[in-house]
Amino acid sequence: MNFIAKIREDKPFIFNITNEVASNFAANGLIAIGASPAMSHTPREAQDYGAMADAVVLNLGTLTEDRGEAMLKAGKAANEKGVPVILDPIAVGGTVFRTEIINDILATVKLAAIRANAGEIAVLAGALEKAKGPDSMIEKNDPEIAKAVAKKYDTVVISTGETDVITDGMRTALCKNGHEMLQNITASGCLLSSIIGPFVSVADDKFQAGVYAVASYGIAAELAMKKAMGPGTFILALLDELYFLTDEKVKRYKQIQER
Ligand SMILES: Nc1ncnc2c1ncn2[C@@H]1O[C@H](COP(=O)(O)OP(=O)(O)OP(=O)(O)O)[C@@H](O)[C@H]1O
Ligand SMILES: Cc1ncsc1CCO
Ligand SMILES: [Mg+2]
């Protein structure tokens, strides 16, 4: 399927409850890929937005009582309307508050996908005790751990690192696209989580949508680094390359290994 063309045609409405670090970057990235973003974190409109969106992204960075409440409301409203929900469980295990909210979401909201770094996925699997902050605490991105989380929550898991793992528990793909400069800017994972929104909104097969989203994002980063000089120019170039991305480029440059 030509996901990029389909996103640009449909212009899916992506509702994000995300953190204040990522908010502007994620909104710009969503526009660049062809989606229509809204960011809000008040519980009073979470239900309305959750019900009307084409996809909902719940990101646990800069968590507050309000954001936590809004995420549960938006997630439940989205579930009632069949709107796909993506979770980015930033720093799960790191503090009691965020771990409790994440567990509430996992227990009450059906997720289309979980996108997190390999350390956070290991915490969800029970294989690692805690993530300290937003940065990954482990080097190895183990597909078996991601598969266990996918089965546990009956969802697609996208576990990022040098090689990304995408799995629905049955099918697994490894993606080698991307660039290490993504580690030198903040919220590169948050932007990916938001960008998964439009991909899962236009396809029934959430696994294939996840694979395509991850490859697309990694390719945009690779192309951006052909022009950027460092982290500052990379941020701008990444937005440019998301804007100029095509299905032809994704098919030409993708480094996906399905197994
Ligand atoms: N060592 C690496 N080399 C190349 N790309 C990487 C590397 N580590 C992560 N990435 C890429 O960086 C992006 C963000 O993944 P990462 O695992 O850093 O998420 P994250 O820790 O949640 O990010 P953040 O919390 O800063 O938003 C992904 O596209 C991933 O493929
Ligand atoms: C730095 C930071 N702190 C809370 S959220 C966030 C963005 C990357 O996860
Ligand atoms: Mg993260």
Description:
- Strand 3 (about 55-60), helix 4 (about 65-80) and strand 4 form a beta-alpha-beta unit.
- This protein has a 9-stranded mixed beta sheet, with helices on both faces.
- The mean pLDDT is about 95.
- It has 11 helices and 9 strands.
- The chain has about 260 residues and is of the alpha/beta class.
- The protein is globular.
- The chain has a domain at about 5-160 and about 185-205: Ribokinase (UDP-N-acetylmuramoyl-L-alanine:D-glutamate ligase, 3-Layer(aba) Sandwich), CATH 3.40.1190.20.
- Helix 2 packs parallel to helix 8, helix 4 packs parallel to helix 5 (about 95-110) and helix 8 (about 190-200) crosses helix 9 (about 205-225).
- Adenosine-5'-triphosphate binds near residues 186 and 189.
Short overview:
The protein is α/β, with parallel strands linked by helices. It has eleven helices and nine strands. The protein has a domain at about 5-160 and about 185-205: Ribokinase (UDP-N-acetylmuramoyl-L-alanine:D-glutamate ligase), CATH 3.40.1190.
